[in-house]
Specification:
The chain is mainly α. The protein has helices spanning 4-18, 36-47, 54-64, 84-93, 104-121, 128-141, 143-155, 163-169, 171-174, 177-194. It starts with a helix and ends with a helix.
């Protein structure tokens, strides 16, 4: 049974993730174009010219509200909220990423590169929107946690290649953190609805 404090914490997390809850609340970001060239450039570089780069801008809005100086309580920084160890690992793999994770250009490049690495992991046959959800869910909760949730989903007789199945069992892997991940994926989709 949850204590009153834990229940309030869960409610607060959900409110912070889901508010503003209407897609129209994100309209103002269509006028924030300062970093669009980086989202476009690195989306093309790592995903190809046909991939919709606005999806990564939507992710960055969900991560940091496009604030270059954003810093999380766990040490993630920048527009794409990159952790120090993750950035170091990315720089070792992607020689084209040269700067600091505090610099918007390289933070965005690293975030999109990391998404590409995760995207490749989820190549099993599944609908495109589900693959996006697996990618963003992994970015938020860690791919290992999503893999564990897949195993549980399959044991429960659910389709492990559908994001809905992961939503149904993720709390058994990440506990209360599952609310954050599920809300994060939904928030990106809502934001993307209004970006152009």
């Amino acid at each position: 049974m949850c204590s009153k404090g834990r229940t309030m914490k869960i409610i607060l997390i959900l409110l912070l993730i889901l508010l503003p809850c209407s897609a129209q609340a994100f309209e103002r970001y269509n006028h924030v174009v300062k970093y669009d060239r980086y989202f476009s450039k690195y989306s093309k570089r790592y995903f190809g010219p046909g991939f919709e780069w606005h999806i990564f801008k939507a992710q960055a809005i969900a991560e940091s509200n496009l604030m270059a100086k954003a810093k999380s309580r766990v040490g993630a920084v920048g527009i794409m909220q990159i952790m120090p160890g993750t950035f170091k690992e990315i720089k070792q793999k992607a020689a084209s990423i040269k700067g600091s994770r505090a610099q918007p250009r390289w933070n965005i490049a690293a975030g999109i590169y990391y998404n590409r690495e995760i995207w490749k992991l989820w190549k099993a046959k599944r609908p495109y929107q589900d693959r996006l959800s697996f990618m963003f869910g992994s970015y938020n909760a860690g791919k290992g946690n999503i893999l564990k949730a897949q195993v549980i989903a399959e044991k429960e007789g659910l389709d492990p290649n559908l994001w809905k199945s992961i939503e149904d069992v993720l709390n058994r892997v990440t506990g209360e953190g599952s609310h954050e991940t599920i809300g994060y994926v939904r928030k990106i989709k809502k934001i993307k609805e209004v970006l152009r």
